[in-house]
Amino acid sequence: MDKFRIVGPTRLAGAVAAGGAKNAALPALAATLLGDAPVALDGVPRVRDVETMRRLLAHLGQQSEWRGGTLALAPGGEASPDDAPYELVKTMRASVLVLGPLVARRGHGRVSLPGGCAIGVRPIDQHLAGLEALGARVALDHGYVDVRADRLTGARFRFAMPTVTGTENLMMAATLARGTTTLDNCAREPEIVDLARLLVAMGARIEGAGEATMQIQGVPALAGAAHRVIPDRIEGGTYLIAAALTGGDVRLEGTRAEDLTPLLEWLAGAGADVEIEPGAVRVRRNGTLRARDMVTAPFPGFPTDLQAQYMTLMTQAEGVSTIIETIFENRFQHVAELARMGADIRVDRRTARVHGPTRLAGASVMATDLRASASLVLAGLVAEGATTVDRIYHLDRGYEAMETKLARLGARVERLRSAE
Ligand code: EPU
């Protein structure tokens, strides 16, 4: 398993380009199953989760190939399976995104139940209840959900909580349903708006994406399209936090500042200078960092996917910051590793209190999930001496060429490859 070795402390300075959003690319790839013509996607990041989704699509008969910076997808033509096997779903929960398209387009989809994952239980009951509301029959057998429908029928469905992939699955399913579907209490993340843009380009009729209530009028068929995936606000946000953390000066290019609120407000509140430029955001810090409480929430709240990185920032801030994780019940696994580097963080269920500032010392630490890994890499940038972050495959799921991007900003970081 590859590792990162980081020697700190360092100050990051310079420009970094935002990659395409992993969490917009994954539903976009799944959406290509809905159409019967080629789809060309630009801005798809070359990360491991995208490769996993491509493998799953190939299994389902949807071929994809890189043509320069464009990922071109086209149906294979042959009769192919309608299932997402356990081997793929267990490495990537987002595999469940093929369920809506398969049921809508082929009348049948079978997906391995994702089970638990490092950050929590994460059930898919809302995806299934939504499909049932559209007339699908859901059966559980041998660890799989088997969903069938001759043709889905539009209906009104209210999500019990805003779920990102749940909203995406239902949106995709409803595009080919008979009649109109109204979805209430939808997730409003920018990735959902991006998916709606692609679906509309393919011929779907969707109103209200990005709002709590969305209306989808079913159409008989969807066509091909060309689409550019939005920049990754979580990847970009990670580099901006790193800038504030290291007392640096980083310009994130090719980003959309509107997707980065409230992070930018929190960075400013903690003592960083934030400048919004056309297509770019610059974060600098000269003065002291101040503790600032934070609660994760669905968009437009503070994203859970930046909670771990923000916690690393707060280890260097003056005062006590209270961080509450409201989305996932087990997303504090970085705490124990940060503590091994010298952080003073006390956890009580979903609340973490970070007492800062503390001097961090380089250590060998273990990545447990994608965003936790990023928080440990950030800690390594400000720690004295060498930090080794093991199990970097978690990072490779969602950060494209992280070591290259960090090195260009002045970090001393290298990937230690292992033969395994
Ligand atoms: N939930 C249910 N039932 C459902 C669906 C969700 O109880 O049927 C609960 C979850 O357990 C959780 C909450 O609802 O407590 C919200 O989860 P959501 O469904 O929104 O999460 P997700 O769609 O599985 C996506 C991202 C995650 C990100 C979350 C929250 C993708 C592919 N994944 O997951 O990204 O943390 O939304 O914003 O879009 C990451 O990139 O590191 C990552 C984990």
Summarize the structure in words:
- There is one protein chain.
- The protein has 15 helices and 24 strands.
- With 420 residues, it is an alpha/beta fold.
- The strands form 6 sheets. A 4-stranded mixed β-sheet has the order 22-23-1-24.
- α1 (22-31) runs parallel beside α7 and α12 runs parallel beside α13.
- The longest helix is centred in the middle third of the chain and has 13 residues, at 233-245.
- It starts with a strand and ends with a strand.
- The mean pLDDT is 96.
- Bound molecules: uridine-diphosphate-2(N-acetylglucosaminyl) butyric acid (EPU).
What do the pLDDT scores average to? 96
If strands are numbered along the chain, what order do they take across the biggest sheet? 22-23-1-24
What best-fitting shape do the alpha-carbon axes yield? globular
Radius of gyration: 21 Å
End-to-end CA span: 6 Å
- β-strand amount: 25-35%
| Number of separate strands | 24
> What's the number of helices?
15
List bound small molecules.
uridine-diphosphate-2(N-acetylglucosaminyl) butyric acid
Low-confidence stretches: none
What structural category do the secondary elements indicate? alpha/beta
Characterize the main sheet.
4 strands, mixed
Helical amount: 25-40%
